[in-house]
Amino acid sequence: MTTGEQLLKKVNDFFGDENNVRGYRQLLDTVRAACEAAKNSDCAHRVYRIYGRDDKQANKDIFKTREKIALALSRKPHPMTARVEDVEDVIGLTVVVHYPDQAEATAQSIIAQLPSDCRISACEPKLKSDGGYYATHIVFESDLSAHRHKKCEVQIKTVLHDAWGAKT
Questions:
Q1: 7 contact partners, CB below 8 Å, separation of at least 6
Q2: Which pLDDT does position 44 carry in this prediction?
């Protein structure tokens, strides 16, 4: 069995455990609620749209494809010992704002809206730019037992960059 096949088997085995699937779904619900709360509070004039993979993909799945997760694992320094939870964007959301200068304040508002008892530590927002792609990323990693060590990535893009990404 090739390394790629072994990694895909590892990913399939991981998602064969309903506790892992449930944990990711709960984490996504928590982060989506924080995004919606931010939109409905001080970000109402900034946030144009919030969506996840389930809004874009034909199969309505919230997860990155298993093949892409295996590929992400293959890029880790030690792919065979890396955990699926080490992949930052197994699940994620996109928050679309009107203008670039609104991304940072929106990110901070989302972070502030997370429930205090949820014990989610948010990584500092970071700007990613690559070949026309331009977005601010925040990775939320959970310490709550229901989804400990699982990560959810939020991408904050402008309307223009979101449309450009959809087109290309």
A1: 70, 73, 74, 79, 80
A2: 67
Strand 126-130 relative to strand 133-142, pairing: antiparallel
Residues 151 and 139: their CA atoms lie apart, in Å, by 6
3-state DSSP call for residue 69?
Answer: helix
Q: Is the pLDDT of residue 99 over 70?
A: yes
Specify the pLDDT at position 164. Answer: 82
pLDDT digits (tens, 9 = 90+) for 113-164: 987 766 677 677 777 777 777 889 999 988 888 888 899 999 999 999 888 8
Q: How many angstroms separate the Cα of 123 from the Cα of each of 78, 101, 136?
A: 23, 19, 12
Beta bridge partners of 99: none
Sign of the CA dihedral with 90 first, then 95, 100, and 103 last: negative
Cα(114)–Cα(88) distance, integer angstroms: 18
How do 47-52 and 133-142 pair as beta strands? unpaired
The predicted model gives 21-29 an average pLDDT of 95
Tokens of 123: 């990584």
